[in-house]
Amino acid sequence: MKTVILCGGSGTRLWPLSTNEKPKQYLNLFDNQSLFTKTVLRNKQDSLLVISNKSHQKIVEDLSPNETSFIFEEIGRNTAAAILFAALNSRPEDILLILPSDHLINNIENYNACIDKAKEFALDDKLVTFGIKAQHPETGYGYIESNGNDVISFKEKPDFETAKSYLKAGNFYWNSGMFCFKAETFIREIKLFAPDIYEECLKVYNKSENTDQKITLKKSDLLNIRSESIDYAVMEKSKNVKVVPADIEWSDLGSYDSLYDQFNKDQNGNAVLSEFISLDTKNCLIINDEKEKMITTFDIEDLIIINTEDAILIGKRGQSQRVKEIYNKIK
Amino acid sequence: MKTVILCGGSGTRLWPLSTNEKPKQYLNLFDNQSLFTKTVLRNKQDSLLVISNKSHQKIVEDLSPNETSFIFEEIGRNTAAAILFAALNSRPEDILLILPSDHLINNIENYNACIDKAKEFALDDKLVTFGIKAQHPETGYGYIESNGNDVISFKEKPDFETAKSYLKAGNFYWNSGMFCFKAETFIREIKLFAPDIYEECLKVYNKSENTDQKITLKKSDLLNIRSESIDYAVMEKSKNVKVVPADIEWSDLGSYDSLYDQFNKDQNGNAVLSEFISLDTKNCLIINDEKEKMITTFDIEDLIIINTEDAILIGKRGQSQRVKEIYNKIK
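C-alpha cells for the assembled complex are given below, as produced in the milestone run.
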C-alpha cells in the first residue's frame, strides 16, 4: 500500500495565518506539529509519495521522512491530474491511499479499520471514497448518498434547506477527499471518463526527469492539462465506486470556526494559541503568531482574533466564512 | 503672561498607545500633531516654560519652539511642586497660565475669552481655576461647586449617584487642571498651606544650575519633597480662589472611550486612525500604530482595537476604564 499525500490548496479561508508562502498544511496548529506531519504520522505506509507545489519544495522536504518520493508541480492542475501522476508513478497493482494533507482525524482506531475495509474493496478493483457521516447541515461540502457501501449518487454543495434534508435522511455522507484504489483501476477509469486528461498527463509525465525519487513537472507542460477534480472527472461518472462510511472524528479545518471547535478551551471557553492577558473574555478564538507581541482583551466574547506578522483579523465567531471575502477584498 | 506646560503623567489609561517612553501628550492623535504641540500652538504666549520628566527631554525639546525654557525633573513630585518650581523660575509679578499638555480644546474663541477673564482675576491677586461645565455624571474627575466665579467647595471624585446630583444641580464644574495666577500669589498661598513643600522646593531649586534656560532637578533632591497635587495642597484650602467657567469643548482624552468621542467617524460610525479593511463593522475605534500591518475586521461592533509594536488591545467600547486593570495585570 502506498500513501499519496496531496499538498495543493492555498487555504485562503485561514488567511492571514495561512498564506501562499505557508499554507494551512504546514502550520503547527495542534500538538506543535503541522497538519502535514500529523498526516504522515497517522499512516504507517509501506511507501510515501508526496505531491506538492514546487514553491513549497523546501518546507515539505524538511517535514518528510527519508525514502519519501516527491512530485513537484510548478502549477497545480487539481486532483484528477495530481492523482493520475501518482498512479503513473506506481506499479499497476499498487494500492494507493490518497489523502489531503490538511485535515484532522482524531479517532485513529476507526480510521485504521476504515483503511482496512477500503483496501478490501480496492483489491476487488473498486474506486473507494470515504464518507464522513454528516453532523450538521453543512453547505460547504459535497455529499455522497449511499446504501451501505454502495454509492447512489454524488451531490454538489447543497443549499441550506437541501443540506438539512440530507442530514434528516441519514444516508448522506460528506465527501472527505480521501480515496483508495489500485493504480491500474484508476488509470482504467480515467481513460474512460476523462481521456483528454489521461493523454496530456501521460505526455507531461513521460517528459519529466526522475532524479533521486523527485520529479518536477513544468508549468508550460502542465498548462495543457484540463484542471478538474477527481470527483467530477471520475468518481461521479464511474459505476465502479464504493463508499466506506468513516466515523473518525474528522475535520477539514476549513474555517476559523472549525478550528475553534477542534481546539481545547480554557475555563472561559477561549481557545487560545499563545499566552494572553484578559478580563471578562469568553468563547473567543485567539491565535497570535508573533511571540514577542502580547494580545490583551477586556469585556469581549465570541470573537475570532488572529495576529500574524502581516495582518490582524478580528471578526465574529460563527461568521468565519467571511474571511474569504476579506481575502478577496485585499487582493 | 507666561505659559507653563506640565508634561507629567504616564497615561496608563491609553496603554499600549501611550507608554512610559512616549506618553499621551507626545502622540500624534489629531491633525497629525501631538497634543503637546496643539497646546503650544493654542497659546500665543509671551514666554513659554515647559516642565517635563528628564527622560523625555529629547522628545519635548524637539517639539518646543525656540526660546522655550525648560525644567526637567528626574522624578515627578506632582503638581504642587512642579508649579512652585515654575513660580520660583518667574518674576513675582509674572502671570502664570498653568496648562496640562495632554488635553484637547476645540472652542478657541471661548478659550481665549476665558484666559482674558482669568488674567483679570490673577491681576487682582486671585488663584484662578477653570471649571468645565459637567456634561455627564463623570466619576473620574474632581468637581468645583461654584456661585458665579466664587468657589463654594472642591469635591473629590464622586460616586455615580453623587455625580448625577451634581449634574442636576447645575453649578458643578469639572476640575480641568488649568490654573492662572501671579507667581507671587501662588508662592504666598503655598507658604501658608503647604510650608514644607515650599521649603524643600526652594532648597532643591536653589541647588540647581540653569544653563541655556534649562534646569535639571536631581532625583535625590526631589525625593525630599512631598508629592501632592496643587488642588489638595493649595486650591482646596485657600480662601482666595476664583473659578472661570469654561465652555471650551474640552476633553482630557483620559480613556479610549473619550478618544472615540473626539475622533471623526466614517459612515459606519467607525473612528479609524489608519487604513483598514472591513465587512459589516460598526462604531469601532481602530488605531493601528504599525503602518506596514493591516487590520481587517468582519461582523463586529462597539469594539476598541489598538495595535502597536508591543501589544494588541481589544475590548468593548464603554468599558475602556478597564485598560488600567489590564496595564496593572501586565506589570
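The longest strand of chain A covers residues 172-182. The first helix of chain A runs from residue 35 to 42. Further analysis is deferred to the final report.
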